[in-house]
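Supplementary notes for students who missed Thursday's class. We covered one full example, reproduced here. Read the sequence, then the structure, then the short commentary at the end.
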Amino acid sequence: MNKALSTLKLLISDKVIFPAFEGLFFSLFLYAVAKEIGWFKKKTRVVPIVKRGEKSWNYFYLAFGIISIILMQVINSSEALKGYKTFISLTNLLMLLYLAFFNSWFRNKIIGIINKSKTKEEQ
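Structure (token representation):
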């Protein structure tokens, strides 16, 4: 029983959760970059082009702000990787900056989440 408890404590510790969180965020970044350069696209000649309006850009600013606060809070509250938090923070913010303002796939996901939230019927 003690071994199971100690294993559980290790699995939910900062030493495991924080690198897993960072790995997931970096994987999301790599996937978004891959989508942007054309991997995982269906072979078609149709290329949709959308010019975002001011309302959409406000959503991107909001998403960047909320996600950056969450990222920084997770990094600052973690005891793992002390001494590297500045590098990790800057790297995460730069990746998020690219995702929120320059990556079409991620920006479309932001708009999709906002639209689903707005059209959701309440009971």
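Commentary. Residues 15-116 form one domain. The chain has one domain: 15-116. If anything here is unclear, bring it to office hours.
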